[in-house]
Amino acid sequence: MARLLDGVLEATVVGSFSRVGYLARRATQGWGDPPRLEGKVLVVTGASSGIGRAVALALGRLGAEVWVLGRDAGRTEAVAQAIRAEGGLAEAALVDVADGSAVDAFAERFASARGRLDGLVHGAGALLRDYALSAGGCELTVATHVLGPFRLTWRLAPHLQRARPSTIVTVSSGGMYTERFDLDRLEMDREHYDGVRAYARAKRAQVVLAREWSRRWSAQGVASYAMHPGWVDTPGLASGLPSFSHLGSLLRRPEEGADTAVWLSAGAARPVTDEGTAGSPPDEDGFWHDRRHRGEHYLPWTRPRHGEAEQGRQLWQWCAVRTGLGSDP
């Protein structure tokens, strides 16, 4: 019955993405707490507000040492202090993921302080109504959601591989369902810029990139997942899509939208071996929502023209050229 209800909810966007879907699935699927994370080190971007903040706080409560990354110094430090106030360990770092030099500086700081990384959560994101460029000259939506995560993950990959098993979790969006991945249309120019469409395309690209990390690194014990949180009441939603505020009580709370990202970060999706230890990443490393693997395409015209593996290789090469980071670390 739980699977039947889940399928019915998934078939109706409002039922699946709203708070109704979260509460119904939690009540009928016997969700338990994610595994404890004492002794684990995790990095969370976009952790100063919204879903990223909820992820960081939840990971701290599970016992992890959390590196809280954000663009606002006061809010970022406040999240770290909140984790410490509950007896956890946290470090705050002022990082704009769209700024390559800031990402590189953080990676050097982390490398000098820690030799391993058990999990990386890409929570930074924004729906920008107006066209803007990053410090490196890239359209800011793509810089924030694609090139920034690529750069940070590449820089931190040796630490993830050293900690195996480890996880990469990318917080994408259900909005990506409206767009097909097309590398030639990924980065918009000023004349044709549309904030909502740019956001959806970048979020689709995140799913492709997450799959490519899995393809390259799963044999080394690094699981890569992309998930979408549903419709969540956050400052970003209010500013980027103000019409969604009319949904009111149908919107999820930030901690509800963060649940699957926390659950994946804690390694709960990994199979358990006969010895009771986490095994290799499952084949279903792809797209997740409400603790279940989901299809990546609702609309037939969004399906890839070429194979998914080819998409990943193309995007990887494009990111490598744009960031100046070449082969695997």
Polypeptide structure, described:
- This protein has helices at residues 2-11, 13-17, 19-28, 50-61, 73-85, 100-113, 140-162, 195-217, 235-240, 254-265, 308-323; strands spanning 41-44, 65-70, 89-94, 119-122, 166-171, 222-227, 287-289, 292-294.
- With 329 residues, it is of the alpha/beta class.
- It folds into two domains: 1-31, no CATH class; 35-323, Rossmann fold.
- Strands 3-2-1-4-5-6-7-8 form an eight-stranded mixed sheet, with helices on both faces.
- The chain is globular and about 50 Å long.
- Residues 273-284 have low confidence and may be disordered.
How would you concisely characterize the structure shown here?
With 329 residues, the protein is of the alpha/beta class. It has helices at 2-11, 13-17, 19-28, 50-61, 73-85, 100-113, 140-162, 195-217, 235-240, 254-265, 308-323; strands spanning 41-44, 65-70, 89-94, 119-122, 166-171, 222-227, 287-289, 292-294.
Q: CATH fold name of the largest domain, please? A: Rossmann fold
Low-confidence stretches: 273-284
* Tally of individual domains: 2
Instruction: Report the biggest beta sheet as strand number plus sense, adding barrel if it closes.
Output: 8 strands, mixed
What average pLDDT do the residues reach? 91
Q: How far apart lie the N and C ends?
A: 46 Å
Percentage of helical residues? 40-55%
DSSP helical segment count: 11
Order of helices and strands: HHHEHEHEHEHEHEHHEEH
Estimate the strand proportion: 5-15%
**From the coordinates shown, what is the CATH architecture of the largest domain?**
3-Layer(aba) Sandwich
CATH class descriptor name of the largest domain: Alpha Beta
Q: What structural category do the secondary elements indicate?
A: alpha/beta
